[in-house]
Amino acid sequence: MDMEMTINQKIEWVKDLLSGQYSLWNRRDFYIPVSEIPTNIAGHFWEILKKFEREGLVRKAYLGYAGLFDAEHKPEVFKKIGDDGKIPAITYEDGKGKKVKKKLQPTYYIEIDATKLSGGKQYFTKEDVKFEPLNGTISFGKISHSFQENNKEKLRVRLFKALWNDRKVIKGGKEKTKGLPLPPGTVAARMELVESKQDFDRNQQLKKKVALLIKNVKTTLRLKKLPITIRKSGGIQIVIEIK
Question: CB atoms < 10 A from the CB of 234, how many?
């Protein structure tokens, strides 16, 4: 991002951010970690929110500390800083029965007036997820991710290509496209990792490689906040769920 942005460009950037969050999550309140605000915007971000509050575009805005975000990007815990000035922490079990203490991260809570923010325009909240096989780019509204042209990423885009045509699509809780879960061996063959499903079934090392690949792609999709995951239930399948 250009480091020489004017204040008006920064204002428009924040407005686009809020509109994109509303479009993505289909709700008027959301949480934005401070770490997600670019450095060249951060210095004016709070002042811009206060400006929007005066204009009625933002109903509420304050800074707190949040942690353990769920699939809809809502934190399980959201606290304001304590009187002692220390960052609050939470304690949770790590899955092995061991209690772990973790500091919460600085996070903005923002509630918008969607009608005023859009200037009377209707924002579409049910956009389709798109995938362009030629350049390996996934997009949803203002969010996009492109698999890079290196050996590691090439396998990831090949996995995505192998699964894309048989994806499941859910919108507003209703199944729009059922798709087809594919056996792991079929997926590996489509990726040209093996010549046949039988070759895959005999190759334990390749099975582990594909399982790790799926896990890494799922992590990328989650971090990018794309409403997509890859599920293994009766086979492997891309699942798109738009709230």
Answer: 10
Q: What is the pTM of this model?
A: 0.49
Distance of CA 60 to the CA centre of its chain: 24
Please say whether the beta carbons of 90 and 98 come within 8 A. no
Domains of the chain: 7-117 (no CATH), 130-242 (1.10.10)
Residue 190 and residue 21: Cα distance in Å, rounded?
35
Residue 66, class by beta-carbon neighbours within 10 Å (0-12 exposed, 13-18 middle, 19+ buried)? Answer: buried
CB distance 72 to 122 below 8 Å:
no
**pLDDT tens digits, 45-101:** 999 999 999 999 999 998 888 887 776 778 878 887 666 667 777 777 766 777 878
The three-class DSSP label of residue 151 is helix
Q: Do 8 and 14 meet the contact criterion of CB atoms below 8 Å apart?
A: no
The per-residue pLDDT for range 88-139, each reduced to its tens digit, is 777 777 667 778 788 888 899 999 988 888 764 444 444 588 888 877 889 8
Among candidates 183, 133, 178, which has minimal Cα distance to 160?
133
What are the structure tokens assigned to 236, written together? 């492997």
Q: 119 with 109: CB under 8 angstroms?
A: no
DSSP-based three-state secondary structure for 36: helix
